[in-house]
Design goal:
Elements (H helix, E strand, L loop, with lengths): L1 H8 L4 H8 L3 H10 L6 H11 L5
């Protein structure tokens, strides 16, 4: 997932990468579908904030 996101949006902040790395498989699958609709990295951050607490 990180490679796909990096290819689409460029190098991501390590905090974002770590949050994605900690996602359970089910949420990675959901993100894998939904990221196709993201227009920018801010959409990814919003998705993470909505689905995953920042404490992860």
């Amino acid at each position: 997932m990180n490679r796909l996101l990096n290819r689409r949006f460029g190098e991501m902040d390590s905090f974002i990468v770590e949050r994605i790395r900690l996602l359970p498989t089910e949420q990675l699958e959901i993100l894998g579908e939904e990221f196709l609709d993201f227009s920018g990295i801010s959409d990814l951050v919003t998705w993470l904030d909505t689905h995953i607490p920042r404490s992860l």
